[in-house]
Structure formats: structure tokens, C-alpha cells
Amino acid sequence: MKVSGLIAAGGIGKRFGAERPKQFLYLRGKPVIAWSIEAFQQVAYCEELVIVVPDGWQKTVEGIAKEFCRNIDYKIVVGGASRAGSVLNGLKAVRSDVKWVAVHDAARPGIYPHQIEEAILLSREVGASIVAMKAVDTIKIVDKEGLVIKTIPRSDVYLAQTPQVARVADLLRAFSEDENFLNATDESSILERIGIPVGVVEGGINNLKITRPEDLKILEVVL
């Protein structure tokens, strides 16, 4: 089973407020994106890395890739105007003989190689898969005024993480059949719309997405 690891690093992280995109900040001595690069290299099924980056940052990523891609081929692709657009650009660059892709946020540096492998194996069994963390807090649905509408059982709720694994052909078809795909925040939601079953692999706090400066501090401890 040949898999391409597609590392989505195309955003510029306006919400984070740093001088450079958060995926290029340093975490315990190395760039945030390097953690994901090293994790995917330890996955036996991974044949290549497609690294999607913001325009203007290709040279920076080339330097990082040369240092940390020690035993795997890689390609650097310029991202699009949205996350989904960036993923689509990456999909088009996947090697033609590789039929599966594992899309992973570069802002999730704590992913474990065994979680990636479990997601790959589950996707082969059911059609597609995601890593997701089971909700531990009570879940409230809130209206635009900030008032609680209802409470839903947390036992039914998972917080989607990455990687999200699917056949390249299925993802391309999902994008082509969904007029609003550019607004999608993850791949599994688009796959669901075309009837592809999506399985869940248990994630955890290790796979926290860096969104705010305090997230970087949390991962300093977790990692």
C-alpha cells in the first residue's frame, strides 16, 4: 500500500500573530513543520512527502526539507487561497503510482507515527479515516447571541484532527463534485458528502493544533 504524506503548511497564520507562519516557528529546537516530516518518515507505507507551502516561503522550506527529509523523496508545492485549495494543489502533485494520501496539518507537530499507520490501515479497510480526539467536556450548541440552545451527548462527539487518509481518486472526485469545497475545513467532510465511509482512529492531546501562542507552550511540555 503506497501512501503519499501531504503536509498542509500553506497558511500564513494571521490569528497566531507571529512574525512568520507558525509552522516555521521553533519548537524544542527545530521548526514546527520538521516534527511532522520526521514522523511520516517513520511510517513504512509512506513513499513520498508533498509539502504545501505559502508562496514566498519555498526557499525556507527547501532548507528545512534538505535537513530533515533524510530517507524520503519530497516535493514542495505552493498552496492556494484556502486550506482546501492548498490540499487540491498538493493532490495534483502526488506521484502517479501512489493511490492513497494522508493529509496532515503542519501545525500539528505532535502526531505519532503509529497513529498515522493506524489511520492508513483503517482507511484501507473502510474507505477513508481520520485521527480524532474523543470529547471529554460537556458539549453545548450556542446561538449567535452566545446563549445555549441545547446540550448534546459527548459520547457521540469526536474532535477531528489529522492525518486524514483517503484514496487520491476519491478526494479528487469529492472536490470536483462539491461546489463549496474551498470552504471545507477538513477532507473528511467532503468525502462524507459523496458517500465515502470515514473511520476514526483515537487521537489525543499530543496532536494538538497550534492556533494560539499558548498552544506552542503546551506542546513544549507535551513533547
TrEMBL record:
EC numbers on record: 2.7.7.60
The protein, known as: 2-C-methyl-D-erythritol 4-phosphate cytidylyltransferase
Enzyme class name: transferase
Family in the record: Belongs to the IspD/TarI cytidylyltransferase family. IspD subfamily.
Keyword Nucleotidyltransferase: yes
Pfam families: IspD
GO terms for MF: 2-C-methyl-D-erythritol 4-phosphate cytidylyltransferase activity
Role played: Catalyzes the formation of 4-diphosphocytidyl-2-C-methyl-D-erythritol from CTP and 2-C-methyl-D-erythritol 4-phosphate (MEP).
Classification of source organism: Bacteria, Pseudomonadati, Thermodesulfobacteriota, Dissulfuribacteria, Dissulfuribacterales
Known catalytic reactions: 2-C-methyl-D-erythritol 4-phosphate + CTP + H(+) = 4-CDP-2-C-methyl-D-erythritol + diphosphate
SUPFAM superfamilies recorded: Nucleotide-diphospho-sugar transferases
UniProtKB keywords: Isoprene biosynthesis, Nucleotidyltransferase, Transferase
Residues marked Positions MEP for the nucleophilic attack (site): R154, K209
NCBIfam families: ispD
Keyword Transferase: yes
Site positions for Transition state stabilizer: R15, K22
Pathway of action: Isoprenoid biosynthesis; isopentenyl diphosphate biosynthesis via DXP pathway; isopentenyl diphosphate from 1-deoxy-D-xylulose 5-phosphate: step 2/6
A biological-process GO annotation: isopentenyl diphosphate biosynthetic process, methylerythritol 4-phosphate pathway
